[in-house]
Amino acid sequence: MTLLSLVRSAGLAVLALAPIAASAAPLRVVTTTEDLASLAREVGGDRVAVESIARGYQDPHFVEAKPSFILKLNRAELLVVVGRELEIGWLPPLIQQSRNAKIQPGGAGYLDASEGARILDMPTGQVTRAMGDVHPQGNPHYWLDPGNGRRIAQAMQRKLSALRPADAGHFAARYADFDRRLGAAEKRWDAAMAPFKGTKVVTYHRSWSNLVGRFGLDVMGFVEPRPGIPPSPAHTFSLMQEMKRAGVKVLLVEPYFDLKTPNSIARETGAKVVVLPPSTGGVPQAPDYIALFDHIVRLLTGALAGAR
Ligand SMILES: [Zn+2]
What we know:
Blueprint: H1 3-24, E1 27-31, H2 34-44, E2 48-52, H3 67-75, E3 78-81, H4 91-97, E4 110-112, H5 146-163, H6 168-193, E5 200-203, H7 209-215, E6 218-222, H8 233-246, E7 250-253, H9 260-269, E8 272-275, H10 289-306
Parallel strand pairs: 1-2, 1-3, 3-4, 5-6, 5-7, 7-8
Helix pairs in contact: 2-5, 5-6, 6-10, 8-9
Bound molecules: zinc ion (ZN).
Residues 61, 134-135, 140-141, 205-207, 227 line the site of zinc ion.
């Protein structure tokens, strides 16, 4: 063997080993919510190590910043955010203090999951946070449509493949498997929800636009006068009149809101309060994205059937 061929074969050996070495350490992914974390695990499998900042039982608009979050972000190779200003009240200073150039907005390690998603409730006039509305860029609870879960997973597949080209085949195969399982689950959910198409409901926060749109329910009103604005006696009074007129029997409440106003609305109108978890990990029955919808559909169909 000549010296040249020895160098060549050694060089090839290094090249051949490089992708294995690169994928040996899982890519460190930080997501803002557990829904995004679940989707990242679906696509990334054992080639990613995923951590979420917010817990599933927390109101994602209002998360208390902790120093440990900055450390997580400092080490992250990819940050995935819900976007649409959902995290604007707590995330920007954490990203800034992480001193991690990769995960700054617009950086190679930053993914805004809302970019390819179907966004509802886009404001028509000018809406600013100064008005107290926490949905100034459309509804940020868009993960509550399985179609958007698929779009988010696809965006993650593209991003992970760009960051780890050697694992692109792995990510593509895992995305295809998730897509297939989600499609089968959607058939199940559509069939369970079909009898309730057009049923009128009221919700506390405007979290469920995508979900009710997907399954054909009709949201008649909200306990909050505007997203992020606490209920007022005048608004609650007119909401109860409308509920009685329209015969609304189901009131959906996110687990992090006080039940005082919903319970008094229920007493006055005869509606049933249903506490519905909007995020993965919020309750033990929803350990991942698909299980979350199974749980929501189970609770919803039970309440809707009981209200008939
Ligand atoms: Zn919201």
